[in-house]
Specification:
Layout (H helix, E strand, L loop, with lengths): L1 H18 L19 E5 L20 E4 L8 H9 L3 E6 L8 H12 L4 E7 L6 H17 L4 E7 L7 H10 L2 E5 L4 H7 L2 H13 L10 E3 L12 H15 L7 E5 L6 H12 L1 H4 L1
Parallel strand pairs: 1-2, 1-8, 2-3, 3-4, 4-5, 5-6, 7-8
Helix pairs in contact: 3-4, 4-5, 8-9
Length: 284
């Protein structure tokens, strides 16, 4: 009887600690997943709009491509061509775009992750998610990593997180290979606030989820809404961000950058950006 009571007490102890999130979460890091350094992530192929020729890219530096798992984003032949050249191609998945049921989201993620190098999630907004959806994603991410320990998981997400969603951010820190905080800075914002916006946001994320700095690759925005100062060259604006991240963000463990998205800029700007990105190799 005493032995039974002792076992029951142990079970109650772990139940209480687990539900109050005091026990450390498991890490699913795997040595089987090897990444290039620096890592340059491109949302969609670095081509011009309306282009379906994915054999001839305007940029040479992107070594991770974020695409949907369909022929419109590249035929099997295209994907095999770039795979042989060492380009990682991740299947993009959208949480909650078409389903809010946990088991269905898991199945959707699983179908994509098993049919490629891995998945890249677009996107998790920790500044907006409600508790229900945050809990669903938390469970799905843990189950996906548990079921696919050797596959790549990358996540685009907000650069600010509500305290209510910090548990999810810490799960991302534990199970994702790369977390991409979207620090999309306009010309106006950069002029007003300076580059310290990058540092401030990264420091806050690290305080909320200690260790996540080891997984961070900063995402910068290339879309036209950020081009909002007539006296500033948008190309120069983008290049200055690349230089700052490359030359001054020494606290980041992973050298590299994520681009959202090269298709939004013209060919000349793409090529100038590519030249600047090549300098990542000279400092790493």
């Amino acid at each position: 009887m005493i032995k039974v009571h002792r076992q029951l007490a142990i079970l109650i102890f772990f139940f209480i600690f687990y539900n109050f999130s005091i026990l450390p979460e498991l890490s699913f890091a795997s040595q089987d997943r090897i990444f290039p350094s620096p890592i340059i992530i491109s949302y969609y192929w670095p081509v011009q709009r309306e282009t379906s020729d994915f054999y001839n890219l305007n940029m040479k530096t992107p070594n991770v491509i974020d695409i949907l798992r369909d022929n419109f984003h590249g035929t099997k032949q295209v994907r095999e061509y770039w795979k042989k050249k060492g380009i990682i191609q991740l299947n993009r998945v959208y949480p909650f775009r078409s389903n809010n049921i946990e088991k269905n989201i898991f199945k959707y993620f699983a179908d994509n992750i098993r049919n490629g190098d891995g998945i890249i999630i677009d996107e998790i907004l920790g500044n907006k998610l409600d508790y229900h959806r945050s809990s669903i994603l938390n469970n799905v991410l843990i189950d996906i990593r548990s079921n696919f320990p050797k596959k790549i998981i990358m996540i685009w997400g907000s650069s600010t997180w509500q305290e209510a969603n910090v548990k999810l951010l810490r799960t991302i820190q534990n199970i994702a290979d790369i977390f991409i905080p979207e620090i999309y800075i306009s010309e106006y914002s950069l002029r007003k606030n300076g580059f310290h916006l990058f540092d401030d946001k990264i420091e806050k994320l690290e305080k909320q989820a200690p260790g996540i700095i080891n997984k961070i690759v900063i995402g910068i925005g290339l879309y036209s809404a950020l081009d909002n100062q007539t006296d500033i060259s948008f190309k120069a604006h983008l290049l200055s961000q690349v230089r700052y991240i490359r030359d001054h963000m020494h606290k980041l463990v992973i050298p590299g950058i994520a681009l959202y998205a090269p298709i939004y800029i013209d060919q000349d700007t793409q090529k100038s950006l590519d030249i600047e990105l090549q300098k990542f190799y000279s400092v790493n």
